[in-house]
Amino acid sequence: MYRRRVLDDELDVLLPQLAAVALEGAKGVGKTATAARRATTILSLDDPRQREVLAADIDRVTQLPTPVLIDEWQLEPAVWDRVRRAVDADATGARFLLTGSAGPAPGVRIHSGAGRIVTLTLRPMAFSERARSTPTISLRELLTGDRPTITGSTAVNLADYTDEILRSGFPGIRDLPERARAVQLDSYLARIVDRDLPEAGVSIRRPAILRAWLAAYGAATATDAAYTAILDAATGGQSDKPARQTVDIYRDHLQRIFVLDPLPAWLPMFAPLTRLTRTPKHHLVDPALAARLVGVGRAGLLRGVGTRVSAATGTWLGALFESLVTQSVRVYAAAADAAVGHLRTKNTEHEIDLIVEREDQAVVAVEIKLSATVDDSDVRHLAWLHERLGDRLADRVVITTGEHAYRRKDGVAVIPFAMLGP
User: Fold this and answer.
1) What is the reported pLDDT for 112?
2) What is residue 242's predicted lDDT score, i.e. its pLDDT?
3) How far apart are CA 340 and CA 150, in angstroms?
4) Are residues 196 and 233 in the same domain?
5) Full-model pTM
6) Could you give the CA distance from residue 328 to residue 99 in angstroms, rounded to a whole number?
7) Which of 89, 116, 168, 346 is the most exposed place for a label (fewest CB within 10 A)?
8) 3-state SS assignment for residue 52
9) Which residues are registered as beta bridge partners of 415?
10) Across-strand partners of 367?
């Protein structure tokens, strides 16, 4: 059964008005299922036969009943430019949907599609899409600066969040029995190295090194560990390390196929803030992949087991919970025309887990805490930012694993993660 996604609301508005919309994201996030519900004609280019027919007559995409869904368009890159030219000739809404799990292969040049093809990102299922509870607090409303009432409670607890981390947000994997789910996630990771990157034109001379690097990257989840530290963790004790340039190539291509989903540093143009870091925080597309790579299961996570790369404080479960929250907040923010980053000063004196910023420069600052309670020490960085931004800071939030939502006397909103939605 199809579970409606946050992005469906945006497609309801945009598709009738726009001639071509492209959905991009990692394999397995549900792009095809979401797009297919709106398509009259479906061209599946991961089917060699359909791809061969289309390559022989690329104009065919303009002759089929609309909307036409072109699934995995990047396997026949010429289709992108053909759709772009078709939109130039006729900009009637709802003509084309394109889905892609990678950008074009190295060396393949296409027009950006700017002004003709609108690109939207679909990530794994946000928490509100998983039907664990009904959210009652809207990120969009927090961005208004009207300080909405924060109240209510949820029965979702730490063990439930741990289960959701391990189940993943991949629609076709998360509802499998535990053992089958683990095998599928391991297969997903193996396919990245054995098939997805080679199919994308990347030569993998030492697959074992790439697998070890992926595991080290997973262990660096929710940190801004230096890439040299990640490489050292992946190749500890080995004298024959791969060249930094080689690892950079792997990283760039893993990001191109949406397996890596780093969170950029927030660098405001308007704010009286200086000496902020520019280093992204490391995240895989789904924290379940990080959990499988590090090899810690439910019982171990709840006991605090798990090795992290370059993390001075916090538990491995805390890092995965931050990644789960980050994944969902990015989905909710996109629905509110907002972007998400993180803040850290260069002297590491101040850091805030998430900064959500709307186009009008309204800002919501979010701290994430693997705890049911919040004290003054948990909001000190939010207070520091409030002093500097004043009214530009629409709201201050601490996301918890607790039961109750409320506003503290200092105005900070304390919100159980399950209660937050778009």
Assistant:
1) 53
2) 79
3) 22
4) yes
5) 0.95
6) 21
7) 89
8) helix
9) 399
10) 398
> 131 is written with which tokens?
């039907």
**Measuring CA to CA, which residue among 184, 208, 222, 203 is closest to residue 322?**
222
Dist CA 397 CA 410 (whole Å) = 11
- In which residue are the tokens 């034109």 written? 201
Residues 6+ apart with CB under 8 A from 420: 127, 128, 135, 137, 139, 328, 329, 332, 399
| pLDDT 10s digits, 235-273 | 876 767 777 888 888 899 999 999 999 999 998 877 678
Place of tokens 């009259």: 40
Residue 54 is predicted with a pLDDT of 95
**Spatial contact of 290 and 405, defined as CB atoms under 8 Å apart:** no
Please report the pLDDT score of residue 310 as a whole number. 74
What is the rounded distance in angstroms from the CA atom of residue 279 to the CA atom of residue 107?
A: 28
116 shares a domain with 176: no
The DSSP annotation for 244-257 comes to: HHHHHHHHHHHHHT
In Å, how far from its chain's centre is CA 79? Answer: 26
Domain containing residue 55: 6-121
* Count of alpha carbons within 13 angstroms of residue 44, beta-carbon side: 8
Q: Are residues 64 and 158 in the same domain?
A: no
> Quick one: 113 and 143 in the same domain?
no
The DSSP output letter for 417 is G
Instruction: Give me the residues of the chain with pLDDT under 70, please.
Output: 103-114, 237, 239, 271, 311-312
Q: 1 lies in a domain?
A: no
Domain boundary among 82, 106, 121: 121
| 314 and 287 in a common domain | yes
- The residue length of the chain stands at 422
Nearest residue to 102 via CA among 156, 53, 45: 45
In three-state secondary structure terms, 261 is: coil
Q: Which helix (H) or strand (E) holds 42?
A: strand 41-44
- Would you state the pLDDT for residue 319? 96
Q: Determine, yes or no, domain membership for 44.
A: yes
Q: Which two tokens stand for residue 4?
A: 């409606």
Count other C-beta atoms under 10 Å from residue 42's C-beta. Answer: 16
Q: Is residue 219 part of a domain?
A: yes
Question: What pLDDT sits at residue 337?
Answer: 95
Cα 273 to Cα 23, 223, 224, 382: the distances in Å are 35, 21, 20, 14
* Tokens matching residue 40: 């009259």
CA-CA distance, 131 to 411, in Å (whole number)?
30
Query: Of 121, 141, 168, which residue sits at a domain end?
Result: 121
